[in-house]
Amino acid sequence: MFLSSSFCDVVSLFSDFAGEEVKGKRVTFIPTASVVEEYVGHVENDKKAFESLGIIVDVLELSTASNEEIIEKVTTNDYIFMSGGNSFYLLQTLKEMGADYLIKAEVSKGKLYIGTSAGSVVMCPDIRYIEAMDDKSFAPKLTEYKAMGMIDQYPLVHYGCEPFTEVAEQVYQEYKDKLPLVLLNNYQVLTVQNQEIEVLSI
């Protein structure tokens, strides 16, 4: 797993981590977390970052896709990417569409998962910790906040970076003694490989 706050800012680290020729590979690009956000420029920036590596971007919008489309794109493409946006809306949609189990199964089989911001947050055990940063009212059907649980750590994204400086510090102060937070600024990435966890910086 390659978990960042801002994929386009750490794309230079990706090819080495992937450990293979990435040109010509296909990524299932899931922009769902951004659907409820006003600013979505980061989605286009991340898309361009993949394209700069010669990776073919195959967009999958979970909220409007059919089950068949979700299964096909998640299982057949080489990588899975989930963009930034609202973590609660993303988790709600993943659960509604059953994509959470599908993605977990693919990652468990060894498929490379790439997350940025909300896409990184949902890999932790429970996303309640991020509610100061993300508005949970966008996910009214979400009755509990148990997330993908693919990592034991809790990524605190955009730490020390505007416009999230104050709210990220608020989350840190509230949870630093309660949860194993991993602080990630926009130029760092949390990598998970063979159960080994490492934070890389540009």
UniProtKB/TrEMBL annotation:
It comes from the Bacteria. Signal peptide: none annotated. Keywords: Hydrolase, Protease, Serine protease. Belongs to the peptidase S51 family. This is Peptidase family S51.
